[in-house]
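Running this now, will post back.
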Amino acid sequence: MRTLIAIAWRNLWRHKRRSLITATAMAVAVAMCMSLIAFTDGMYNKMAEIMVDQQLGHVQIHHPDYPGTRQLLDTVPNANEVLALLDADETVVGATGRLNGYALLGSDKTSTGVQLQGLEPDRELPLTHVDQRVKKGRYLASEPAKEIVVGTGLAEELAIGVGDEVVAFTQGSDGSLGNDLYTVVGLSSTGNAAMDKGGAWLHLGDLQELLVLDDQIHDIMVLTDDADDLDAFATGLRARLPEDVEVQTWREASPQTAEMMGMQSFASLIMLGIVFAVASFGVLNTMMMSVFERTRELGVLKAIGLRPVQMVSMVLWESAFLGVLAGGIGLVLGAGLDLLVVFYGFDMSAGGADGFEMMGVRFDPIIYGDVTPFSVYAPISALILVSIGASVWPAWRAARLQPVEAIRTE
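Update: finished.
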């Protein structure tokens, strides 16, 4: 076996230029794949931060009818008791209640329909850090003060800025017409395209007063310290919470978001497919040429007793060495590209100075990558496996050579 391995290594360097060109082409494919997977992971991590960590939470608790009806009166029963139970749970990082409503929001120039969300800043900010997404002004005060933070897109549509006043008109839960005046204290770009274009945030107490829903909330967003096993966490909550509340993981609460996040694996497979294609064609071409050029030599080896299985093994070892060589070069090139993606990012400012929108999420102009073990070992492993797999046919052809005919080959 050692002799076969040595011959395979020697054969690889018979044509140094061809071997190096093939290995370099394969290495470039690996490096590009590593950086693209890192970029994709970074983009989806940002998407998860916006849609899951800030908007949905790991788990949501609400009235059983609320997801389907979105009725104002379908609030969480005994919400304060539920929040107290969650606060005492060591596996819960934090929980915050939210109230949702719709209103006609008007400035002194125009008006439009908006979605309002009421929240408690003292509970919300340590969990979601949405105050860091305020582009101008500040976030809501800890206590109700008739303040409002509006999305940047909505502010542009209403032609308002920090310090301006807006009036909200809506129907309260008791059928009355609710209206109030609020001061704009901040313009926020959360990344949720729908809310940034048509949403605004109030203190929970202010929105409860506007909607006539004293001490009521529509849902509770929960973050846990074990985001990898949310089903078990949700099952545990269901066992401890009253039966008149519904507990859903974020995947159950928003199947569209779950489907969107599921595309991350599909995107990685596409990147790996690129490596498979480049590697397979490169190895197949190189090994076929190698076998054709050494037909006479291979015939001599068979004539002196080299068995077919040994012939196959020798060719496979040669292709494995080529794959390892390409993987090593690709690892070095890929590490350099990964550093660029992680520290400098991809500039996507062609979509506008404020970033670009995709699948309901508005991203920053520069997307930074996230390097994971998978983004490193998967392309290299795929390259080596495909290198060996692509050489099976040349190896099989070499094993079937007839010694007499092969030796006569010029």
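The chain has a mean pLDDT of 82. More later if anyone needs it.
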